[in-house]
Amino acid sequence: MKIFHTIREVRDHIGEQKREGRTVGFVPTMGFLHKGHLSLVARAKQECDLVVMSIFVNPLQFGPNEDYERYPRDLDRDARLAREAGVDVLFAPPVEEMYPRPSYTYVEVEGLTQSLCGESRPGHFRGVATVVTKLFHIVQPQKAYFGQKDAQQVRVIEQMVEDLNMPVEIVACPIVREPDGLALSSRNVYLSPEERKQALSLYASIREVEKAFAEGERNAARLIQMSVDRIKAEPLAEIDYVRIVNRRTLTDVETIHEPALFALAVRFGKTRLIDNTLLQP
């Protein structure tokens, strides 16, 4: 595995590989890798000749009171895990390489970014869309791999790629969970033992909603209330949102007639967790 810290180095190397006919699969991450990230690598290795991973904690997608400074970082550990997973190229630029001077240009996907996480994290998706655009221009992959846990992010990037005619296929991969059901996230390390125990209510509520849906319930309000009641049974849980939205437009639905995203965000102490499932009639 080759490790690069500058845009010129990684561009030159990938350019050489593409000229030799290799296809490029790209896995963008913020590091502190877990099995979810590594599942994206495994998928990319099945479908592409060269797997490129980026590790970059992007300051543009963090709000002023969010966890940018304390976001977990361990490049040595990440490099070892990436190498063991079969990553061919690791791109780990410092902030000054990606943003050497104040930016005047940003990428904004309207409509899809105003609901769900966009309501409580204004500016977050502008930061995501901007850095992903920069990374796509640097790496120029044929395919890019994202986890379905960040369902709104996946949808925003899909729309951005479609609207801007970017020559990259977005591949959404299934959520990877701990044996007890907790969705894997780099932020899980923030949870105290009791917070982590109570955080299992997210997956428990998802399973209840999936069961009711499978049995024929199509009223979104009733499914949402079922989830809210389950989560509120945990004293440390502070609900940000529990919503059922159209899979493509991310607008609220009242009755589920077509694929809908059941999504939730809940805080336990200072840790904000998200999870979701797709409800398909």
Task: Report on this structure.
The protein is globular. Strand 8 and strand 9 form a beta hairpin. The strands form 2 sheets. A 6-stranded parallel beta sheet has the order 1-4-3-2-5-6, sandwiched between helices. Strands 7-8-9 form a 3-stranded antiparallel beta sheet, with helices on one face. Helix 6 packs across helix 7. The chain is an alpha/beta fold and 281 residues long. It folds into 2 domains: 172 residues, HUPs (Rossmann fold); 89 residues, Pantoate--beta-alanine Ligase, Chain: A,domain 2, CATH 3.30.1300. It contains 9 helices and 9 strands.
Provide key terms for this protein.
281 residues, alpha/beta, Rossmann fold, Pantoate--beta-alanine Ligase, Chain: A,domain 2, 2 domains, six-stranded parallel sheet, three-stranded antiparallel sheet, nucleotide-binding
Helix content: 25-40%
Write down the CATH topology of the largest domain. Rossmann fold
Strand content: 15-25%
Q: Helix/strand-derived class?
A: alpha/beta
Instruction: Please write the string of helix (H) and strand (E) elements.
Output: EHEHEHEHHHEHEHHEEE
Based on the coordinates given, report the CATH architecture of the largest domain: 3-Layer(aba) Sandwich
Q: Low-confidence spans: pLDDT under 50, at least 5 residues?
A: none
pLDDT averaged over residues: 97
What is the makeup of the main sheet? Answer: 6 strands, parallel
Please give the domain count: 2
- Give the termini distance in whole angstroms: 44 Å
Tell me the number of strands. 9
Strand order of the largest sheet: 1-4-3-2-5-6
Q: What's the helix count?
A: 9
Radius of gyration: 19 Å
The CATH superfamily of the largest domain is HUPs
Assign the CATH class of the largest domain. Answer: Alpha Beta
Shape verdict: globular
Pfam families: Pantoate_ligase
Keywords: ATP-binding, Cytoplasm, Ligase, Nucleotide-binding, Pantothenate biosynthesis
Binding site for beta-alanine: 61
Function: Catalyzes the condensation of pantoate with beta-alanine in an ATP-dependent reaction via a pantoyl-adenylate intermediate.
